[in-house]
Amino acid sequence: MGGRTSIGRGVIEASIESGARITVSSSSQHSADSAVSEIKTLYPSADIAGLKCDLSKITVEEDLEALFNEAGPVDHIVFTAADVLALGVAVRHLPKSSESSLTLTMGSIADHPAPNWALVAFLATGLMGLTCNLALDLKPGRVNAVKPGFVNTGLWDAHMMQDEKLAMMEGIGKKMPVGKAGQVEDVAEAYLHVVKDKNCTGEIIKTRSGQQLFYMPDKIK
């Protein structure tokens, strides 16, 4: 859920390369169909379906039930950009087995405070507790979360010009121990890890380019 662009899209592509059958949801059928078409261009043999589910509507629970009923049996659910309130419906469709998993996404702002990000930090911190408690509530099914740091995605394009984004990413990359800001295709591997590892539950997997080794609040504004 949230696989139309950015990290979600990277997770889809990495999953396809691992042989997974994919269902991607988007707020409109047109958007879902476009995502499937784009992915099919890169992976012609991909087993992928696109379904509509607008999480902003008041009928979100009914719409989610319809989504999962149409999608059929699922073994793994990955949330990269979806309201956590949708979890109540989603988890009912997961098999109670260590073969299945739920993977959430949280921001590194929970570890690195910054001005004007208090509400986002509040939500991110809450997801840490939610992940661990759900891992107990849903056992033997597995629940984990991935916590990316700065990632070079299209989401930045809505907030700055391309040259500004490029300059910011280059500046961040110079400070990172790995020499660059996070790349979608690299971060996606963290999601695949928790999906595949049947011994992994209640974990927060961090993929942050070494961001935790220094503090840079001036880059989060």
TrEMBL record:
<dbReference type="Pfam" id="PF23441">
    <property type="entry name" value="SDR"/>
</dbReference>
<dbReference type="InterPro" id="IPR036291">
    <property type="entry name" value="NAD(P)-bd_dom_sf"/>
</dbReference>
<keyword id="KW-0521">NADP</keyword>
<dbReference type="InterPro" id="IPR057571">
    <property type="entry name" value="SDR_PhqE-like"/>
</dbReference>
<dbReference type="InterPro" id="IPR002347">
    <property type="entry name" value="SDR_fam"/>
</dbReference>
<protein>
    <recommendedName>
        <fullName>NAD(P)-binding protein</fullName>
    </recommendedName>
</protein>
<dbReference type="GO" id="GO:0016491">
    <property type="term" value="F:oxidoreductase activity"/>
</dbReference>
<keyword id="KW-0560">Oxidoreductase</keyword>
<comment type="similarity">
    <text>Belongs to the short-chain dehydrogenases/reductases (SDR) family.</text>
</comment>
<dbReference type="InterPro" id="IPR051122">
    <property type="entry name" value="SDR_DHRS6-like"/>
</dbReference>
